[in-house]
Design goal:
The protein has 191 residues and is α/β, with parallel strands linked by helices. It has one domain: Rossmann fold (3-Layer(aba) Sandwich). The protein is built from seven helices and six strands. It has a six-stranded parallel sheet, with helices on both faces. Helix 1 links the parallel strand 1 and strand 2. Helix 4 packs across helix 5. The N and C termini lie far apart (47 Å).
Length: 191
């Protein structure tokens, strides 16, 4: 049985993380991706990249409309391995932290939490205010993983792609999914 992974893309900057995650997971045997793309996510992606809504949807095995609150993903009886919101807007973070399941992204995240499944949020905002920090704390206490896309400069990246691949690979680590050659692992300091 394939591992079902939910990838949600919201309107925060950084749509490349969700897009690259879908691209990387296409090459992994035994993974079935379920995409939820908000309208703001599609709009941001089209302004930040060469990807429009249709090209992003083609990267996923299954596409769910973000307003379809009756989709399979809205029920705990639909077994998934985990969910990543990449990127995760502060609006989405706040809704999840406060139990506001008003669209499929926030409902699917709520299901992950109530079923004690893996939920990783690639939050995108800076600087952070106290409400952002409290919402992150609340979600961490509920079992979610807060994974802001912070570059790993110890890898000596030569391009933006190197930074994105490392960050996406490390985020997939939170779901116990390893993409060969995507992550440069820390090997300690060479004296």
């Amino acid at each position: 049985m394939k591992k079902k992974i939910i990838i949600a893309i919201t309107g925060a900057t950084g749509s490349i993380y969700g897009i690259r995650m879908l691209e990387m997971l296409q090459a992994v045997e035994g993974i079935e991706t379920h995409l939820i793309l908000s309208s703001a996510g599609a709009l941001t992606a089209s302004s930040e990249s060469q990807h429009d809504k249709q090209s992003i949807q083609k990267l996923a095995d299954v596409v769910h409309h973000y307003k379809d609150i009756g989709a399979t993903l809205a029920s705990g009886s639909f077994i998934t391995h985990g969910m990543v919101i990449a990127p995760c807007s502060m609006r989405t973070l706040g809704a999840i932290a406060n139990g506001i399941a008003d669209n499929l992204i926030t409902r699917a995240a709520d299901v992950m939490l109530k079923e004690r499944r893996r939920l990783t949020l690639m939050v995108r905002e800076t600087p952070l205010n106290l409400v952002h920090l409290r919402n992150m704390t609340t979600l961490t206490e509920m079992g979610a993983i807060i994974a802001p896309p912070v570059p790993s400069f110890y890898t000596n990246p030569a391009s933006i792609n190197d930074i994105v691949n490392q960050t996406v690979g490390r985020t997939l680590d939170t779901l116990d999914i390893t993409i060969p050659d995507s992550v440069k692992r820390w090997k300690g300091l060479n004296p």
